[in-house]
Amino acid sequence: MQNSLKNKLFTLVGVSLILCLGVRAQDKPNFVFIIADDIGWNDIGCYGNSVVKTPNIDKLASEGLQFTNAFLTASSCSPSRCSIISGKYPHSNGAAELHTPLPGTEIPFPLLLKENGYYTAQAGKWHLGTNAHRAFDRFTDENGYNNGNGGEDNWVRFLKERPKDQPFFFWYASYDAHRAWGADDFHITHNPENVQVPVFFSDTPETRQDIASYYNEIARFDFFIGEVRKELERQKVIDNTIIIVMSDNGRPFPRCKTRVYDSGMKTPFIVYWPNGIKDLGVLAKGLVSAVDIAPTILELAQVEIPSDYQGISFVSTLKNPSNETRTVVYSEHNWHDYEAYERMVRTKDLLFVLNERPNLTNCGPADSKRSPTQYSLNKVRDEGKLTPAQADIFVSPRPRVELFDVKKDPLQLINVASLPSYSKHLKEMKKLLKNWQHNTRDSAPDNLTPDWYDRETGEALDIERQRGIMPGVYK
């Protein structure tokens, strides 16, 4: 009798505990993290582009929180993504150069979610190496899945096939809008006559078609975001799901991708969360860095943040968009097809650049060098008709130090580092960079990885490809 009573009590306590744990699991938010490939921050409708068709992203922004000063730590796909998933700057996590896998000693934040009861899955583009696969219960990278088209084919499928008794985290990565173009036959297209041509491009029919094809890729990316939202609504989990939309680097065009200016490092960044964001359609104007994403998601999931993560959680901004968690962001440009070492410091008012390879042109990645937009610029150069803005990618030697007043010069076209009126600002920015490099153990090796491609044509060099020493001190 006594044992029977004990068993009943244990059963009652066990059921109560399960119910309590179930409530906690349901209270924890779900996450759908969606990252584009090579989409510039201002090539989205809600960021001011009146031509590109992004109704689904625009709707998320109008019903969520749109960040206007979000910056990446690198304007290259794999270093940028490795930085996001590791919560560290590229030179600190051992994956500073393009196509360098994230070391197995690093802790991807989805692994911590997985270990704390979340179902985690990845679908689409990867480029982080195989060591980070362990962070996901299900992944498409090198795993027999078809990642065709823009890489979005498995997004809705994975949502449908997820276990329904766990909170979830999905890392959805698109190939849109990476070259070569593959969305010109998609059902959403753009007229070349209507596109917006940046001042550092040459306005030719070839350039306009190049941009229109790029817009088509963005439209396909946007379409599948809408499909994901529909599925979340169908499953009635949309209210407690946080959707984050961003890009891994700037548009794949000259003076954009790989560059540390806003055209390369600034990213669209939208957070949608019906249960958590109450001030709908508000602009969050404070600075945030891609390195802040990992600690933010972990805090929202009530998971302990590793002590060596280098970002700052911006949960307070989600609760109150006027809250600013940081006053400065840092970014870097390391090897991406070509030898490079640049460091960038950005405040709301100023952008500072240190270039330790000023003898080299800052020409952009190889695929951009082989683009119609680049060929149009080459033609104008050969005719001796380049404007100063267009000439930037050809300049060699370059300034070792650059300073831009981004309030007066939002496109970063005029270097004011030599002006006496900016000497105090220049000194302050140099100090910020020096402290950051010291605290994060940055370094500038003499024998960086050299060029693997021709700087004029973008074609592969006939050389034995060897890596140099990556920046940073990594063990």
TrEMBL record:
Keywords, in A-Z order: Calcium, Hydrolase, Metal-binding, Signal, Transferase
**This protein's record includes keyword Hydrolase:** yes
Entry-linked SUPFAM superfamilies: Alkaline phosphatase-like
Q: Domain named Sulfatase N-terminal: which ranges?
A: 29-302
Matching Pfam families, A to Z?
Answer: Sulfatase
InterPro entries, alphabetically? Alkaline_phosphatase_core_sf, Sulfatase, Sulfatase_CS, Sulfatase_N
Signal sequence span per UniProt?
A: 1-25
Q: GO MF terms on file?
A: arylsulfatase activity; metal ion binding; transferase activity
* Family as reported in the entry's similarity comment: Belongs to the sulfatase family.
Q: Which PANTHER family match?
A: ARYLSULFATASE FAMILY MEMBER, ENDO-4-O-SULFATASE
Give the protein's recorded name. Sulfatase-like hydrolase/transferase
Task: Report the source organism.
Answer: Maribellus comscasis
